[in-house]
């Protein structure tokens, strides 16, 4: 009996000794990412974690403006992927980011519909009385929503369609409105329109870049993520050919290149 107690005590000692070692070797980061990245980043993170067993990467998606506000209020995010480089610059300027903004992609905006042949649609068609609701992301805090407003104003359509607009909290929600029938058409991100989940349900047409400001996107490491080696490891992985191929597949142009 005494030997049994000694053996159990030894086992407990081993467990207590190894537990901190396991905690020390496993790493975890949380990323705040603009919603237009959802499908591309899901694939990249999945590949990354397959090659980094034991490490964990969580991603929270939302509008860039709201995510920026949450970081300022102390949200536990280690990396911030913004759909507008201006939000990343502001965080750095105000001391909430540990790195300078690094551009990672240029986005595009499209007309998308599940009920109409969007590939043949023109912007002028949005004024057609047969189109009841038009979904866009909220321009107040979503870069794609701001660009959608710029497009409608530049095309001389804003006053004609403003009463038809329904606003999503982010670009993903705006797309969902058009997917579910709450809107007839959405002005959404090309990266979302190209995802299998959305492409199988509708079509799209590209909106000329000349009608809106350039969707230059950038990331920063936050103050919280400054000392996390996994944050740097993940961002290095983002620059690999495999990751860049995924970004291009979802319609993102590499920094410094013309958008698709």
UniProtKB/TrEMBL annotation:
Keywords associated with the record: Metal-binding, Molybdenum, Signal
GO molecular function annotation: metal ion binding; molybdate ion binding; tungstate binding
Presence of the UniProt keyword Signal in the record: yes
Entry keyword annotation includes DNA repair: no
Signal peptide: 1-23
Binding site for molybdate: 64, 171
Pfam family, one: SBP_bac_11
GO biological process, one term: molybdate ion transport
PANTHER family: MOLYBDATE-BINDING PERIPLASMIC PROTEIN (PTHR30632), TUNGSTATE_MOLYBDATE_CHROMATE-BINDING PROTEIN MODA (PTHR30632:SF14)
Assembly mode: The complex is composed of two ATP-binding proteins (ModC), two transmembrane proteins (ModB) and a solute-binding protein (ModA).
UniProt record similarity statement: Belongs to the bacterial solute-binding protein ModA family.
Protein name: Molybdate ABC transporter substrate-binding protein
Species of origin: Methylocystis hirsuta
Gene name for this UniProt entry: modA
